[in-house]
């Protein structure tokens, strides 16, 4: 509840209308509860992340992405029959309309894939315009369609911008393997597919981050789920959110070699430059997802060859621990994810779209939860502008 007190802004008299208590203001809403949720819990001091009470690390090791998505949306792990039906439904809905493909062919080839994905996701609302937000069958169908079609649209734009026709999905391949197949038209190595599936699980949900908050605000207006996901995609595209994993590789390339790490880092700290892939508002220790992603990267290197960029990243983490660790700044999920995707042969500007493929599960879980006890978001503000200004005719200005 927002308290109201006297207005002490400069230029205001004591008799002016009272506004929100400025002492309650928190830039970026840091630490301000905006909703209640049973989907995800984070312990930033212990470095623990759970989905519906299950440890995310356990899910990444033992579950599949679609099984985890089912858990996130419906609150319980599926039975064998439920999972088989869910997987079959997703497989059946992987294809997208030729009209969407034609629309994507008109996009500029130099455009960022996140912009293409946002437009394509929003366009689904034109094809599935019926809204029945109180109908479980409608909700189930929307979840299936979005989980099924988002990877297809990401892969389609990747080929279209190269002047090629999109590759049709294969119904016999699991979720992550099918996505890699649509990118390359080659059936992926089972290890590569398994590791990508684990990455999707680790990125599937993370409480009320910026894109999820955007999704919940959009959902609170009772618009369709395609607009909800499109709004979240637009938010995720920012470099302070999902776009950071692209910037980590750019940063490592800028550093160039291990012997330059210490000097580069000290200069960056002195210049108050953001160290990409480091720091998280929730974690005061190393992001548990970064721990797992580092291990997954090492698995890939053992099978497909080492990446010297990994040695540079480890050296940066080692030195940063002495400079930034005392401030609670450690590697986050973005620090090693780019190295994993790079070894999988995925183009750098597809890193964030893959994040979106995964996080669609979390966005949909929050969409469904928001519908359960909805109230439209309408926070207050602290007004800092001028008051009681007199109009001046144009000729007098």
Mean pLDDT: 92
- What fraction of residues sit in β-strands? under 5%
Radius of gyration: 23 Å
Q: What about the largest sheet?
A: 3 strands, antiparallel
Q: CATH homologous superfamily name of the largest domain?
A: Citrate Synthase, domain 1
Q: Helix fraction?
A: 40-55%
- Please tell me the total number of domains: 2
Detailed description of the structure:
It is a single chain. The protein is mainly α and 397 residues long. It folds into two domains: 56-238 and 347-370, Citrate Synthase, domain 1; 244-343, Orthogonal Bundle (Cytochrome p450-Terp, domain 2), CATH 1.10.230. Helix content is 53%, strand content 4%. The chain has 16 helices and five strands. It has helices spanning 56-62, 65-74, 80-92, 98-105, 113-127, 136-160, 175-184, 190-202, 210-219, 225-236, 244-255, 261-270, 288-304, 308-323, 333-343, 351-372, and strands at 4-5, 19-20, 40-43, 48-51, 54-55. The protein has a three-stranded antiparallel beta sheet. Strand 4 (48-51) and strand 5 form a beta hairpin. The radius of gyration is 23 Å and the shape is globular. The two termini are 42 Å apart. The model is unreliable at 1-17 (pLDDT under 50).
Set down the secondary structure blueprint.
Elements: E1 4-5, E2 19-20, E3 40-43, E4 48-51, E5 54-55, H1 56-62, H2 65-74, H3 80-92, H4 98-105, H5 113-127, H6 136-160, H7 175-184, H8 190-202, H9 210-219, H10 225-236, H11 244-255, H12 261-270, H13 288-304, H14 308-323, H15 333-343, H16 351-372
């Amino acid at each position: 509840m927002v308290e109201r007190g006297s207005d002490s802004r400069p230029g205001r008299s004591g008799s002016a209308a009272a506004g929100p208590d400025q002492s309650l203001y928190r830039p970026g809403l840091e630490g301000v509860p905006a909703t209640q949720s049973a989907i995800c819990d984070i312990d930033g001091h212990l470095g623990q992340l759970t989905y519906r009470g299950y440890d995310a690390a356990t899910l990444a090791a033992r579950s599949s992405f679609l099984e985890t998505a089912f858990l996130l949306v419906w609150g319980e792990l599926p039975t064998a029959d439920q999972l088989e039906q869910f997987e079959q439904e997703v497989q059946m809905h992987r294809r997208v309309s030729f009209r969407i493909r034609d629309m994507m062919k008109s996009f500029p080839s130099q455009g960022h894939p996140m912009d293409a994905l946002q437009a394509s996701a929003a366009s689904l609302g034109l094809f599935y315009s019926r809204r029945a937000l109180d109908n479980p069958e409608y909700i189930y169908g929307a979840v299936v369609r979005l989980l099924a079609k988002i990877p297809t649209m990401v892969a389609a734009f990747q080929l279209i911008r190269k002047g090629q026709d999109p590759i049709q999905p294969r119904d016999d391949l699991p979720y992550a393997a099918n996505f890699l197949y649509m990118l390359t038209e080659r059936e992926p190595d089972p290890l590569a597919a398994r590791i990508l599936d684990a990455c999707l699980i680790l990125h599937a949900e993370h409480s009320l981050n910026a894109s999820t908050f955007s999704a919940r605000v959009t959902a609170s207006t009772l618009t369709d789920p395609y607009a909800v996901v499109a709004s979240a995609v637009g938010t995720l595209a920012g470099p302070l959110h999902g776009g950071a994993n692209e910037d980590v590789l750019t940063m490592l390339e800028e550093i160039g070699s291990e012997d330059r790490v210490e000097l580069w880092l000290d200069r960056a700290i002195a210049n108050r430059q953001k160290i990409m892939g480091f720091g998280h508002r929730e974690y005061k220790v190393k992001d548990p997802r970064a721990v797992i992603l580092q291990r997954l990267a090492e698995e890939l290197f053992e099978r497909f060859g080492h990446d010297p960029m990994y040695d540079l990243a480890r050296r940066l983490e080692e030195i940063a621990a002495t400079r930034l660790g005392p401030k609670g700044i450690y590697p986050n999920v973005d620090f090693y994810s780019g190295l994993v995707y790079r070894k999988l042969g995925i183009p750098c500007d597809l890193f964030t779209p893959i994040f979106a493929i995964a996080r669609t599960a979390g966005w949909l879980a929050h969409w469904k939860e928001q519908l359960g006890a909805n109230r439209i978001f309408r926070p207050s503000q602290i007004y800092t502008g001028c008051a009681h200004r007199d109009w001046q005719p144009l000729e007098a200005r």
